[in-house]
Each structure stands twice: as C-alpha cells, then as structure tokens.
Design a protein that fits this description.
Length: about 270
C-alpha cells in the first residue's frame, strides 16, 4: 500500500498489526469471552485486544497525543491539539455473530479538525483512507461518490435504533418515509464506518443514521468529503453533544433525502 502521509502511515501500521489478531479472533468466535456493556451493546475480548494494539502503536509514535476510543475512553486529555479517534471494531454485533461486516476506524484530529481518516475492512482487505486536500482512496485507487441525481433510484443505507433508544418512533418513522419514496430497498448493514466508506466509493448514494458516536464516523466523514460527497447533521440536540444525527451523500440527492428525514419532525412541530 502506497501511503505517503506520515500520519496515515502510522495509522496504517497500527491498523495492520491489530487486524492480524482480529482476523484470528473472527475465526474462533465461539471461544470469545463476551460481557454485556449495556442493553444491545456488547464488548468482547477481541474488541479490547484490538484497541490496545492500536493505541500502543499510535502512542509509540506520539506518546503525548490525546486518544478518544470507544472502549478506553479518553487518554492524555491535556493535549487539546492532537487526538487519535478510534473504533477498534465498528460492527461489533456483526463480528460476534460471525457476520463478516465490520471494520477498524481511526481518525486523526488536529485543532478540532479531522486531518486524516482510515477505515479497514479486514475480511475484504479493503482500506479506505483520506487526508485533507489530497482526495480519498480505496487501496491504491482514487474513489469518488456516485453521480446519481434521482433519490427515487438511489441505494441508501441506514442503521439503528438500539434497544434502549429514546428515539425509536422517530427512527422508524424516518425509515418508512424514505422507504416509501425509493425503488430500491434501504440497506442496513450494521457498521456506520463501512456505510460511509460505501458512500465515498459510490456503492451507496447516501446514508443517514441517528445516535452515532464520534468514533463511529470521524474517519468516514473525512473520507466522504474528500471523495466529493457532502456530510450534514439534523435534529441537533445541544444537550447531548456526544451523539450525532448524520446524513452523508453524493450531494446531488442530499436535499431530497434531508427533506424526507425531517418531514415527520416538521409535521409534528
């Protein structure tokens, strides 16, 4: 893999090292120790092991950099300028059930702006990556979002809700509204980072989801933007800045999708 960016090179090496043990673990699902982290949310020994390898490698290169990771939380919080944002297994439920749809996601943030993003699907051996101003890539090939202009004929992805979500009715309402206005059934694959990667390379024309965490989408947002796509937020809750309601698209179908998603909320108001 030809990666010239120093930061992306660090991220790539950490990712490749972690993915080797992750692939082994995936082949031995029945032996994994799984503990509940809350309703509908699980963490496995593989999750923790993958995260430790990634963090150790990243901090070996820059010991003073901050870290925001799904399992470990925040490290080196005094550094407000440089931060690694990590999801060791995005799609944990898929992973634990033997479904080969999960990814490692790593973003590098500098002065509150994502500068580098990397998403790796170890089963398909697909590496999506981007650096600000340098475009987006899948392995060694440049990628671009789709050119679909008609939402009706678009392929759209989504996700959620979790079992304990307070927004189930809204989410189901949005799903029905979109489904009733497209010809192709909406896809739900269970990994937000890969859904964003699919938008970036034109497989999906758009994606939306509520209640996402920063580590789910930090890398994917940059990759979509660098692939020529558009990322937007809706129904923003200023009291819960930790959760994101996100729309990503090729920009051509963006307004039409946004209008459908927010329609039910507008009608209630």
């Amino acid at each position: 893999m030809r990666i010239s960016s120093p930061k992306l090179n660090i991220m790539y090496k950490a990712c490749m090292k972690a993915s080797r043990s992750l692939i082994r673990d995936f082949g031995e699902i029945e032996n994994l120790q799984v503990s509940s982290k809350g309703p509908g949310d699980f963490v496995s020994s593989a999750d923790k092991r993958t995260e430790k390898i990634i963090i150790d490698e990243l901090l070996k290169a820059h010991p003073d950099y901050g870290v925001l990771s799904e399992e470990a939380g925040r490290l080196n919080e005094k550094n407000k300028t440089n931060k690694w944002i990590i999801d060791p297994i995005d799609g944990t439920s898929n992973f634990l059930n033997g479904i080969p749809q999960f990814a490692i996601s790593i973003g590098y943030e500098e002065n509150n702006e994502i500068k580098n993003g990397l998403i790796y699907d170890p089963i398909k051996n697909e590496l999506f990556f981007a650096e600000v101003g340098s475009g987006a890539f899948l392995n060694n090939s440049r990628i671009r979002v789709s050119k679909k202009k008609n939402l009706k004929n678009s392929l759209i992805g989504t996700g959620g809700p979790r079992g304990n979500s307070k927004f189930k009715n809204k989410i189901f309402s949005e799903y029905l509204e979109v489904s009733n206005n497209v010809e192709i059934p909406v896809r739900k694959f269970g990994s937000a980072s890969l859904d964003l990667a699919n938008v970036a390379c034109g497989r999906f024309d758009a994606f939306w989801q509520r209640e996402l965490s920063h580590w789910d989408v930090a890398a994917g947002i940059l990759i979509v933007k660098e692939a020529g796509g558009f990322v937007d937020y809706f129904d923003i809750d200023n009291n819960d800045s930790k959760k994101l309601n996100l729309i990503a698209s090729n920009s051509l179908v963006h307004e039409e999708l946004r209008n459908l998603i927010t329609k039910k909320n507008i009608e209630k108001n």
